[in-house]
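We now fix the convention by which a protein and its fold are recorded. The integers have meaning only within a learned vocabulary of local backbone shapes. A complete example follows; check for yourself that the lines match position by position.
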Amino acid sequence: MNDSVQPDLATPPRFERIVQPEAIVDRGALNAALSALSGEGRDGVALRRAATAVLRDAMAQGRAEIERRLRANPSHGLETAAAYAYLTDAILVALIGFIVERVHPNHNPTAAERMTLIAVGGYGRGEMAPHSDVDIGVLTPWKQTPWSEQVIESTLYALWDLGLKVGHSSRSLDEMVRQAKGDVTVRTALVEGRYVWGDTALYAEAAQRFKTEVQEGTARTFIAEKLAERDARHKKLGDTRYVVEPNVKEGKGGLRDLHALFWIGKYAYNVRRAADLVPAGLLSAPELRKFNRAEDFLWAVRCHLHLITGRAEERLTFDVQTEIATRMRYSDRVGKSRVERFMQYYFLQAKRVGDLTGMFLSHLDETYAARGSRFGFPRLRRRPRRLHGFVLDRGRLALPKDDFFAEDPVRLIEIFALADLHGLEIHPLAMRAASRDARLAAQVRSHPRANQLFLDVLTSPRDPELVLRWMNECGVFGRFIPDFGRIVAQMQFDMYHHYTVDEHTIRMIGLLSQVERGICREEHPLATALFGGIVQRRALFVAVLCHDIAKGRGGDHSILGAEVAERLCPRLGLTPAETETVAWLVRYHLLMSATAFKRDLSDFKTILDFTSIVQSPQRLRMLLVLTVVDIRAVGPGTWNGWKRQLLTTLFETAEEVLRLGHKQRGRDERIAEKQETLCRTLGWDKDTLAAYVRHLPPAYWIAEPDDVIAANARMVDQSGDTRLTIDTSVDEDRGATLVTVHAADHPGLFYRIAGAIHAAGGNIIDARIHTTRTGMALDNFLVQNPLGGPFDEAGQLQRLKTAIADALANRMKLNDRLAAKPLSRPRAEAFPIEPNVLIDNAASNRFTVIEVNARDRPALLHHLAQALFQSKVTLHSAHVATYGERAVDTFYVTDLTGDRITGQLRLKSLERRMLDAAAGKEFAGFV
């Protein structure tokens, strides 16, 4: 075969960075070891297997050396990726050479038997992670001959025997051209095609035909297809680079985005290496340095990820983030753990990838976009007249000269205000200039006009989220508001928050705007209805900006954030009254959700304590809207009908107290009203109602809403003298299923029912426990499925009823059933959560309130209820809130005589028992 080296067959640029490649694999020694294999008495298969054993040892030694180097230099990602590709080259070349010479020798090949082996995809680029696929292609002049097929088959079998995952194709030159024309995936793979072994003249012919028959004149189409492919990938994986478990390879701001830039540059400009993008005018020299830094870091993360998981894992999940942060030598700092510092750097690199993409596309746009249209950008609907010195370039806001920002740094804020006001997009070159000059924004922090322009954007009646995101992308936001700059790319190491702090804040501002514009009327009717009555509109938007601005500083971010607000608001031009409101909202932005989700809203002391802090109907309205958008902006699935119901109940009850003061309806009046409503709903006469009411304590009527009271009454009426009745009904408004158990009361009843519900696959989110004067228990549970929706399938409901009946009749061993259930959140183990128990006798006038914080796990509520049973206390209600991996379960209890628990020894014993249950320790005597 013709093995003469031609210019286009030079060593891949990536391999140039490998230090002492012979220490990874000694090609001469490897070939000598293969040559020394005796063929005597061996057929082709046996010979191939003997060669595979030699190659396996060489590959294992090479991989061990590469991993050793990565551990010694944990941030050398590109060198590591190149080393794995180099090792793969050596193994492949030695293998196929051995097969052609020893297994299927052909001393006089015909022209049709010529072939060449090429590396494609990432392997073709000279980059591989430890568990990357080996993507190869075999090219032949015409249809494959029997000898070619034998060689290819033996090569593939050997690679599979080596444990490699191989992506392969075999094509004639005509097939290569035809398939490349028809499939952008094939075309992309071949763009990075690289010679590995075989007939060089055939390779040169293939490269020439690809260039002339496929590549020429199709650059614009290829670019459009790659951008569409990128957008589809982002949409599938979550269209933000700030999701806290990012996909290093495919996610937004990941390696694939950098690869797309290189593919486009190679296809349109024939660049051979990333450095060639600078003379091609696609990137500046500083941008190339950012490109290389981001690529090096992302490759290092990806290689560590593969090695830790032992597979081609691309998602940077919580359970590996800490290990990678340790391997890459990050350390803890005040207010930030090593994993949070590592992930913040990760998101900053992902942000840089986004910046580079914008710059890159701006050049392509100028060169390739057709008349009247641009890559992925909307058309201008109208031409604004007053642009204050800025100009329009094909419908985009642009700079008249390069030093326009330097002349007057206020323009760094003004360009975004104009973009918002006129609905314009900002030209990528203007964004590049803003990014370059962002530091100048610090000079105008005290400038009244700059602050007014920023406030105009923040409180825009149009779409503030979009423009604030642009401002953040180019770094102006964080430079102008330095407290915000401290939370840019800052992740929160938990399973509750889906986004970085800055992304969460910007999304929250967008949701607030949508509520104001009525876009969320169906999902959030109360918040939408209340917004029109909010007097201090600007204060609400600024409170959203500041609510998490002090995270990562150590201490209570609500208190620290209020202090930031007190400094920032006057600077932005807010009045003293608005400043006070903003500081209060930031200080208490978690109050409403904590009260609604962790406390018993039927206990009037809960409402009084809440309103004593809120004090004003205006603050209540603003706090409700702030709470709603805060929960919504945490991530998908965090908002549901049950949370809406609780917040609505708290708002309405608190609003009545604030409006009427102590003139609100008394307890007896509310009970009488609920009984009259029940009478009308069921069509009962007064005697029937009196007979039913006689059996139920007053606390029942206060605790339960009208619809649940009616459902309970129907069930009790129909059950007659039956000693056990179980009823289920789906409650769409609450996003849960109401499970009611009417049974003969006995100690331990609640924890058995709770265990049975968990064993049947349900999650209890709320429970109210009542005992009638006839010795029957009437317990109401709100149950959801593991995804946070109603537990509503007929088969599920029947299993649930059966499980409860079996548990109460001792027909099943609950602990065995529960132990067999898998963890609902297996990655929760990555988070160190120390169980905590708070016992409060001031939160209620009638009950002792126990709040338990612990790592969420199956049947946690069941085990905590067991501990209460062992402690000989009476449980009246339970309230369950889950924040990712953290569960907060609250219990309202009394002693067996119905009084609050006050003895210090008793409280200490109760706390210890609850702590043990929260930590998962077993108790003797539990059934």
About this structure: The CA atoms of residues 467 and 479 lie 16 Å apart. The chain has 38 helices and 15 strands. The longest helix spans residues 338-368. Residues 1-7, 376-381, 923-927 have pLDDT under 50 and may be disordered.
